[in-house]
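User: For documentation purposes, I need each entry recorded in a consistent format: the amino acid sequence on its own, followed directly by the corresponding C-alpha cells. There are two entries in this batch. Please keep commentary to a minimum and don't merge the entries.

Assistant: Recorded as requested. Entry 1:
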Amino acid sequence: MAETKVKHPSVEERKSKGKKYRDKAPVSGHTGWKTASDRPDPVALLEEQNRTREQDLVPVRHGRMLVSPFTFYRGAAKIMAADLKDTPRAGLRVQLCGDAHLSNFGVFASPERTLLFDLNDFDETLPGPFEYDVKRMAASFTIAARNNGYTKEDTRDVTLGAVRSYREAMAEFAQMRTLDIWYARLSEEQLMETLNLAVATQKGKALKKAVEGIEKTAKANVAKAHTRDSLQALSKLGELVDGKYRIVSQPPIVIPARELGESFGMSAAEVEEAVRDQLRSYRATLPDDRRRLLERFEVIDVARKVVGVGSVGTRAFIALLQGRDQQDPLFLQVKEATRSVLEDHLPKSKFKQPGERVVQGQRMMQAASDIFLGWTKGVQDNRYLYWRQLRDMKGSAVVEGMKPLGMNFYADACGWTLARAHARSGDPIAIASYLGKSDKFDRSITDFSERYADQNEKDYQAFADAVRSGRLEAVEGL
C-alpha cells in the first residue's frame, strides 16, 4: 500500500492560506442568512429520521422536542444540517462534533480521575467545515437565552461571547506548540480558579453577589458529578432479587432484556446469548490493556434505556456488569450509531462502521476519552453500536435555570472548548488567520444566530401544529 505523503507547510504559509480564504468566504459573509428556496419541509425531515427508530419511542421523542423551541432545536440537527449546506464556507476542515449545541458540553472524569469540561456527544461527528460547529453552538446560545426570557441585549451579548471566546482561543492555539495543543484541557481546578478570580475582581456588591452565586452553583454541580458513578447508578437502576442484582423495569424509559424478547422477535435466552456475543465483539475493539480489564467483569443484566432528546428512538441499552462482588458494578451504555446527518451533504465517513466513526471522532476531539469506548455491529442487519461507560462522574449544566451572567461564563467555556477540539484536528494557524483579530466574525455569526433562532421558532411552530393536527404523535412528560 502506497503511503500518503504528509505536507508540512511553514507557519507563514499556513497564515497566508487562512488570509487567502477570506476572499473565498469573507468573515462578514455569514450575515443576512435566509432559507433556501428549495428548503425541505422540517417536519418531513424528522419523519424521515423516525422511519428507522423504535416506533414505540418516536412519540416520546416528539414529546421531549415539544417542550420548547430550545428542546426542539436539540432534536433538530438534521434540519440544521440541511440549512448549513448552503452557507458560506472558507474551506478549512476540522473534525466536527456535528451537534455542538450548548447542552452537549459538560464535565466527566478523565482516566486519571480528574474532572474535565469538554464536548460529550459525538453521534453526528464527521470531518467538515469548522463554521458548521460554530454556528450550531452560537445559535444554541441565542435560542437558549430567548427561552430563558433574556432581553435582546443580553441574548446578543451571550452569543457574541461564545463566538468571541472561540476566535480568541483559536488565536492562542495558533501560537502554541503542537503537543501543547494536544495536551490542553479545561479541568475542574481551572474552572474554579476562573470563578474565584471573577469573584475577587468584582467591585459592585450586587455583581459580586451574583458571581458568588454562579460559583456556588458550579461547585454544587461539580460535587454532584463526583458522586455519579456505577455504584450510584446501581442504587438508582438496580434492585436485589433473590440475592442477585438486576436492572429495575421502568417502562417505557427502562425495559430489561427479560421483558424485551418479543419486541425483537427473540426469546429471553436468545437475547442473553446475543448480548454475550456482542460483548465479545466489543472487547475486540479495545486496546489490549482495556480488553483485559473488561474481562474481569461479567454481564449480569441488560436493558433498553431511553436517553437524551435527539437520540430518542435510536436503539440504546445499558449493561450491568459485576467485578469482584456485588459492590463492584460497572454500567456500560450501548448506543446505536447511524449515518451522521452531515453525510447527507458532506463527503461520507471513511469508516464503514458508524460506531467506529463516532468513537474515532470522539477520541480526536476530546482532551481525554472514556477508557471503555468501543464499537460493534448489531445483531440485526444495518444496525451499528458504540459502547462507553454509562456514568463516569458525568455532569451537565441546567441551561434553563441560567441567568445572563452565568450563561456568559458558560459561553466562554464552551467557545474555548470547541476551539481546542478543532485545533486538534484542523490547522489552528490557518483558522486563526482567517478569523482575524477584529470582531467581524463574531458579529457576523451572531447575526446568523439571530436569524436562525427566528427560523427555529417557525419550525417549532410547524412541528407543534403537526402534533396538534395528528400528523405526529407525541407523549409528553417522559
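Entry 2:
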Amino acid sequence: MQKKTIAIIDDDVYIGDMLQELLEKNDYAVTRAYSGTEALFAIKHNRPDLILLDLMLPGLSGEELLCHIKEIPVIIVSAKVDVDNKVNLLLSGAADYVTKPFDTKELLARISVQLRGNIRRDDKLIFDEITLDMTTYSVSVDDKPVKLTKTEYAILCALMQNPNKVFSKDSIMTKIEDLTPDCEENSLRTHIGNLRNKLKAVNGKDYIEAVWGIGYKLKS
C-alpha cells in the first residue's frame, strides 16, 4: 500500500525536523516547505494527502496560504491560542487546530482521523455505510436506497467530499450553489434536518453533527 504523504509547512527547522522524524517513524512520507510562497508552488506540483501548517511564515502567511488550499485536509499547528482565531481558521477551511507545544500522540491521532475520511471509488463517495453515486445522483445507506431532494443531495455531496471538515452555513451555500441555485440560506437548516432524518431512518445512526457556533460536519 502506498504511503500517505504529509506536507510540513513551517519555517522553524527544529520543529520541522522533529515532525518529519515522528511522521516517518509512523510510516508516512514527508515533504517540506519553509515559506508560504514555496508551499503554494509545492502543493500545486506535488499534492500531499494532508498538510501540517504553521501560521507565522515568511512570504504568504499561513492564513493567506489556507485560502489557496482546496480539497486537502489542513491541520493548523501554531502557538496562537486565541479562541476567535481558531474559529476563524476552521471557518476558512482548516480541518483541525493543534496548539504548540503539542503532545505527539495527540497529533498522530488527529492526523489519523483526518486521513481516515471518506473513500472515493470512480464516481462514488463512500463514508461509513453511506454510498453516494455522482453519476446516477443516487444515495444508499447499508445498500438501501434513500430518496433525497436535489438540495439534500447537494448538501450530502459537499459534506462527503470533505468528511472531516466543519462547514459553516456560508461555505455550504457556496459548495451547493451549482447543483441547487434556488436554495436560500434561511431554509438551509431545514434541509439539513430533513437530510439528517432520512439517513438516520435507515439504521438509526446519526451521520450529521452540528458543531456549535460553527456549522456542520459528518460523524462516524
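Summary note for entry 2:
The chain has two domains: 5-116, 119-218.
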